[in-house]
Specification:
Organism: Fusarium kuroshium
Protein name: Linalool dehydratase/isomerase domain-containing protein
Number of helices: 13
Distance between the termini: 49 Å
Keywords: Signal
Helix content: 40-55%
Radius of gyration: 21 Å
Order of helices and strands: HHEEEHHHHHHHHEEHHHEEE
Structural class: mainly alpha
Oligomer: single chain
Strand content: 5-15%
CATH topology: Glycosyltransferase
């Protein structure tokens, strides 16, 4: 399905008069933003209004989620026709959102515009395969950031479309009930990263649309997440190079875009602080790796796969001090305009590089919430030490897990019981 957005004639002039968000970004945030956007520019198909799929597993297919992230980056950059292209992407994605309330996948978004309709004979409904309920959160949070940060350069018609989409997203998320059967939806408050996004989207959308039930639902769900966290000051989905990065993203949205009376606004700064205190103990600056054990991981070595925590480290201590690859084999170049250190896209799981604009936009707010002692220790190994914590992921955990990690100059060992 391909839909081309109609942009109001006056919008281009309005967008050209608005300053680029890059002007207010810190140096590290700006470099992440610029490099990730330059990379995505090469994948953008303006005719379709989508990014091509980075994996290229199917010839010339497109990807919905990364396209929305790119659209937010276009709004932030706001050069030339960036805002016009961003609206094109956003309207395409929303028009392809599943909008039939009788379907379990109601309110989520196509994974790619070329796919058949979910549940059709040639494309059976299979959760986390033909459809992904977590994409409600990935896309919904990005649309909210667009509304919060760049509504001045988004046409009124597109803003109305976004709010309707967020309504559908929130209603669809209400269909989610945790299940221990791995063929069904497994969303519990302990599933930290999508739970945090779900609570935020519901709370924000309910307030914006004056839907009291949505607001109350978001607040109550958030309180369940907070109660689990407060048990031992740890995320239930503990220590993941990728998904701790998503959870921090969601907590930043809690702290930045909701009113003071929200339980999310009140709890988020402390949750971010405690999460970073654990990260600071587990991060080994010499090895450029977060020590185990990991609840979820795409590899043992963050120097070989592109983790979201690496992108957060980039915004805080610079790309050269993160776990992103600094130099490939001699003579290796992606294309002539690349230097020998602009190559995180050659790492495994490289599609997560598309998160770059979102993290860059939130980077300065994020840094203000991290304890100064933690920040100052991210560049130099503090010496041999042991870290102990506890995490609890009910109903899959019957009892809390005890976590112990030992870090030395050249070796780290982590285990849980």
């Amino acid at each position: 399905m391909r839909v081309t957005a109609l942009v109001l004639p006056g919008l281009a002039a309005l967008a050209s008069a608005a300053p680029s968000a890059l002007n207010s970004m810190s140096r590290n945030a700006r470099s992440l933003f610029t490099e990730s956007m330059n990379w995505m520019d090469d994948y953008y198909d303006s005719e379709a209004g989508y990014l091509f799929d980075f994996s290229a597993t199917s010839a010339l297919n497109h990807d919905t989620r990364s396209s929305v992230w790119y659209a937010l980056g276009l709004l932030a950059r706001n050069k030339g026709d960036d805002a016009t292209e961003a609206e094109k992407i956003i309207t395409n994605v929303i028009h392809a959102q599943y909008q039939d309330p009788k379907d379990e996948w109601y309110g989520t978004y196509q994974k790619e515009p070329e796919e058949p309709y979910v549940g059709s004979p040639h494309y059976p409904a299979k959760i986390y395969n033909s459809w992904d309920p977590n994409w409600r959160g990935f896309v919904g949070t990005t649309l909210i950031m667009a509304m919060e940060e760049y509504s001045a350069i988004i046409s009124k018609s597109t803003q109305k479309l976004i709010l309707q989409s967020l309504y559908n997203t929130t209603k669809g998320d209400e269909y989610r009930f945790g299940n221990t059967d791995n063929t069904k939806d497994n969303l519990y408050p302990a599933y930290s990263n999508p739970s945090i996004m779900r609570a935020f989207v519901s709370g924000w959308t309910g307030r914006r649309l004056h839907e009291k039930n949505m607001t109350t639902s978001g607040e109550k769900y958030a309180q369940d997440i907070i109660d689990l966290f407060n048990r031992a000051d740890t995320l239930s989905e503990f220590n993941s190079g990728t998904y701790t990065g998503v959870s921090l993203f969601g907590l930043l949205l809690w702290s930045k875009y909701l009113p003071e009376d929200s339980v999310m606004t009140k709890a988020a700064p402390g949750m971010i602080e405690h999460t970073w205190e654990a990260i600071g103990q587990l991060w080994h600056p010499g090895m450029k790796n977060i020590a185990g054990p990991w609840d979820r991981s795409y590899g043992y070595d963050m120097n070989r796969y592109l983790s979201l925590m690496a992108l957060w480290f980039w915004t805080l201590i610079g790309k050269e001090n993160s776990s992103l690859i600094n130099k490939a084999s001699p003579g290796f170049m992606i294309h002539d305009s690349c230097t020998d250190h602009e190559q995180p896209q050659i790492m495994s799981h490289m599609a997560d590089y598309a998160w770059g604009p979102l993290f860059a936009i939130l980077a300065d707010h994020h840094q203000s919430l991290i304890p100064k002692k933690v920040l100052s220790g991210l560049k130099r190994f503090s010496g041999e030490h042991t870290f102990e914590a506890s995490a609890y992921y009910p109903p899959f955990d019957k009892v809390p897990r005890n976590i112990t990690t030992w870090l030395s100059d050249k070796l780290t060992i982590g285990a849980e019981s």
